[in-house]
Design a protein that fits this description.
5 helices, alpha+beta
Length: 126
């Protein structure tokens, strides 16, 4: 007899939920919240030259450099994608994200632009 909530392989729902991916929630008083799953949030933070962290802040003074770093990352991704097949199944089979970095990072680029214009920081994990 299995315990309530246990799978046939002995895994419980609580055990499965404990292995869920981290979620980043980026906030600024100048824009609505932007939520990213862990791998995409990590990718964003690495693109701006930061190590992934559960808490952080992008100060207004750093925003021009952050926007430049994002633009460079997007341009590099666009150039790499121009030389690859456009078939999403082939990209996934090759272990690559079928969603372009330009699309994935657009909400953060917009948030940072608005925060910069309003002289407000962007924070996460607080």
């Amino acid at each position: 007899m299995r315990a309530v909530g246990a799978s046939p392989r002995g895994r419980t729902m609580a055990g499965l939920l404990a292995k869920t991916t981290m979620i980043y929630k980026f906030r600024s008083k100048a824009a609505g919240d932007t939520v990213m799953l862990g791998p995409q949030g990590d990718q964003f933070l690495r693109a701006i030259g930061r190590e992934p962290a559960s808490k952080g802040i992008i100060e207004v003074a750093a925003m021009p450099a952050v926007l430049s770093a994002l633009q460079r990352a997007i341009e590099q991704d666009d150039a790499a994608r121009a030389q690859q097949p456009e078939d999403e199944a082939l990209l996934e089979a090759a272990g690559q994200d079928p969603i372009a970095l330009r699309r994935r990072l657009w909400p953060m680029v917009e948030m940072i632009r608005r925060a910069q214009a309003a002289d407000e920081p962007v924070v996460w994990g607080v």
